[in-house]
Structures are given as C-alpha cells and as structure tokens.
Amino acid sequence: MRILIADDEVDIRNLIKTSLEESGYTVFAAQNGREAWEIISKQQVDLAILDVMMPVMDGFSLLRRIREHSVMPVILLTARTDDVDKVLGLGLGADDYISKPFSVAELIARVGAQLRRSTEYLAQQGRVDVSLTYGRLALDKEACCAFKDGVPLELGAKEYRLLLHFMENPERVFTKRQLYQAVWDEELYFDDNTVMVHISRLRSKIEDDPHRPLYLKTIRGIGYKLHYTGETL
C-alpha cells in the first residue's frame, strides 16, 4: 500500500515516514500541500495523512482538491483541538482526525483500519450484486461509483459507504449509532456529530433540495432512512 504524509514539521514527517515503512508501507513525503498534490497527481496513493496547518496549501485546501478526484481515505493531523476544525475536516470529506501530540502506534493502527475498510470491505461488497438502483440513483459497487440521473456523484469514502449502506437496505430506519458502527466500523466508540456531518454532505450531493429531501429522510427521534416516493414529505 502507498501512503502519502504531508507535514511541514520535518521531525514529525520523518518519524511517521520511518514508522510506516517499518510497517511495510511505501511512503511518499511532502512538506506542504502543493508538493503533496503533485505527488498525488503522478503516483498511485492509497491513503493520505495531511497536516492541517501547512504553508503554500493547507490541509483543508488539499483535502478539497483530493475529494474532487478521489475517495481515498484521508487522515488529518493538527495541533489545534477546536471542535470547529474537526467538524470542518470531516465535513470536507476526511475519514479520521488525530490531534497532536499523538501516539505513533495509534496512527499506524488507524492507517491499517482505514485501508482495510476502503479495500477489503468494498472488494467484498463488489463480488455480489455489483450494481444497485433506487429512484434516480445508481451505484456500481465494483467501480465504487455512484450516479444520479446517469451523472457521476463526487462522494467521499464515508459518503459512498453511507449511500451504499442505505441502498442495500432501502426503507429501513437506522439510528446514528447503527450508521456509525456500520460505516466507521467502530463497536465501542460513537460520534453523533460525525454522522450528522456526513449525512448533510451526502444530502447535498444526492438531493435536488437538501432542505426538502426526496431520498434521505430524517425520522425524528430515531435516525434516518432511504425512502423515495418522487415527492417531498
């Protein structure tokens, strides 16, 4: 697996690079967002670890650019602990968020978890019933692509997995905890806000009007379900 680490702090960058290489990964390193984007444009990258506060192009700007082209897992690193930054990062399509200082062992474990979820899970799902349709939505599980009216949707990795989960279980109501456990694959940890942020982003991409959803309905006091009638409820 090929991993990109982008961080302007050379000691942190080298520490992460060495630790990942010792774990068997191929690692590309960049000191700012522009260098990182040049690497992504030229190399196959399976996962990116991005520092939020970088010169030239910061982590948020780079994440926006990545999400225009790829659903690769992205882990954000930051010395800032504000919830606003976390919500912004997740809202832009980040898959995980780690505050500095951090445990290298924990970072390696999270890298492995994200890679498993983005490869093994999707590969397993793609072996059976590779295409799904619901209303004007379509999903190709083999190519990990989604469409609305035949037009490709630019979804982040978690947005794709949310839509996949809903389309495999239409009309079924899921609580936020159930969605978190299914999509983030976490049995013990639960982040209510993370689910809401990703639901909002998914709605912005699949709905004609996110404020009057045709597909992804909120069931007050319970959770969400995929229910399409062709009319707003």
Strand order of the largest sheet: 2-1-3-4-5
CATH superfamily of the largest domain: Response regulator
Structural class: alpha/beta
- Overall number of domains: 2
Within the CATH hierarchy, at the fold level, what is the topology of the largest domain? Rossmann fold
SS summary, helix count: 8
Q: What is the helix fraction of residues, given as a range? A: 40-55%
Strand content: 15-25%
Shape assignment:
globular
CATH architecture term of the largest domain: 3-Layer(aba) Sandwich
Order of helices and strands: EHEHEHEHEHEEEEHEHHEE
CATH class of the largest domain: Alpha Beta
Number of strands: 12
Unreliable residue runs: 125-129
How big is the Rg? 18 Å
Please give the alpha-carbon distance between the first and last residues. Answer: 45 Å
Q: The biggest beta sheet, please? A: 5 strands, parallel
Q: What is the typical, i.e. mean, pLDDT? A: 86
Report on the architecture of this protein.
Strands 2-1-3-4-5 form a 5-stranded parallel sheet, with helices on both faces. A 4-stranded antiparallel sheet has the order 6-7-8-9, covered by helices on one side. It is of the alpha/beta class and 233 residues long. The protein is globular. It contains 8 helices and 12 strands. The protein starts with a strand and ends in a 7-residue tail after the last strand. It folds into 2 domains: 121 residues, Response regulator (Rossmann fold, 3-Layer(aba) Sandwich); 98 residues, Arc Repressor Mutant, subunit A, CATH 1.10.10.10.
